[in-house]
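Quick note —
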Amino acid sequence: MILDLFAGPGGWSRALDVFGVRDVGLEWDAWACRTRAAAGQLTVRTDVAIYPVWPFLGRTRGVIASPPCQAWSKAGKRLGLVDQPLVHAAVEDLAAGRDTRERLLASCRDERSLLAAEPMRYLHALNAVGEPDWVALEEVPDVLPLWKQYAAVLRSWGFSVWYGILNAADFGVPQTRRRAILLASRVRTAQPPTPTHAQVAEPEPLFGPGRTRWVSMAEALGWGATDRPVPTVCAGGGPGGGPEPFPSGSRQTLANARERGHWQPRLAGAEVVLEPQTRGAGWTARHGTRVATPAHEPAPTFTSKATHWKWSLRSNNQANATVRLLSEPAGTLFFGHRANECTWVAAPASPQTEDTDARAVPQPIRITAREAGLLQTFPADYPWAGNKSQQFSQIGNAVPPLLAGHLLAPHLGVTLDPNDFALAA
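Predicted structure written out below.
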C-alpha cells in the first residue's frame, strides 16, 4: 500500500487516482475525511500522532506526508520556528527509536509544531522491515532545515535523497505556491521533476520542447473563453456564474451600474474585461463599435459611459496582500479564520481612464470554493464537504494534485499527462 499521513482532502490521493493507484490516508479533520469519502478515497479518521505503525509493516510501498503547516506558515504566528530545536530533537530521537515526544511537546509553544516529526516515527518502524521503497514529504519553505535532517537519516538507511524548494507554477499549477519538498528512494536516484513551465515562455532547445509560460488564472478558470463568463457585477451570482453572494454594499453598486448601462461580460477570444452596452460618442469615434482587448494588454482610453476593468485576485484584506492580475498565476492560496479572505478586485484597465464614474466601479467579489479548487488543480466537480469556512480551510491546506503528480510519477513508473489534470470544466 501507499501510506498518506495527514492526508487532508486528497491532494496526493487525487494525483494517485489519475495514475490508477490508491493510497490509505490518515486524517483527523472530520470535514476533510468527508471530502475524501465523497471522492472515493480510503481514509482512517485518526490522530497521526497516536495511530500505531504495526498495521503497515510488511506491506508499505511508499510513504507520503504533508504535516499541518499552520505552525510554520507566514499566514500564522509561526511559533513552529520558535519550536524548531524541539522538533529537531524529536526527529533525532525517533530516528534512533527513542520516543521523547511527550516531554518535548510540553515545551512547545504550538502543539502542532511536533507533528512535523511524526513521519520519522513511521519511517523508523518501517525501515526495520526494509520499507518503504520511496518517500515524498511536503511542507512550507521554512521547514526545509527539517527536511535536511530527515535526508541525513534516510541516507544513513540506504536511501537516495533530494530536498529543496519548488514553485508549483513551474509545473503547470496556476499558482506561485512555493513548498519545501523531500524525495527519497531505495530503488532509483532521487531527483526533482523537470519543470514544464516558466514565467516567460522559453524557445525550443536542441533537444525536446522549451518550457511554456506559467498558466494564468484566466486559463485555469476558463475566463475569456466563449463558453465561460468573466467576473461581472450583475444579479444572479459571482464570478463564473456561481452562487457566491455579493459583499456588503454591492446591491447599490448594481443599481448604479444599471443606470449607466447594463454590464455584461466580453466573450471573444482571450478578452477578460467588462464593457457596458451603453457607450459614449467618444468611444465610437476613437474605436468603432467593438474593440478586442487581450488580457495581457492595457485597454484603450474610455469615457465615463464606457469603462473597462482588469480583474485581479487579492489574497486577503491586509495592506501587504498579494494581488495578481487574472492574466497571471494566483499567489499562494491560504485561508485564515474567516470563511474566505480572497476576493476578485477590479481597476480601470488604463490609468488614463477619462471621467470614470466611481458609482460604476465593480465591488470586490469573493472567490468561490470551486474557483479556489481549480486554482489548486482539483477538478471543477470535486466534492468539497462542509460549510464555506470548512471548504476553504481544506483547499488552502491541500497539495495541488498536479504538483503531486509530477512528484509521484517517477516513483510509480508512470508518465504524467497534464491533460489528465483538467482545470476549467
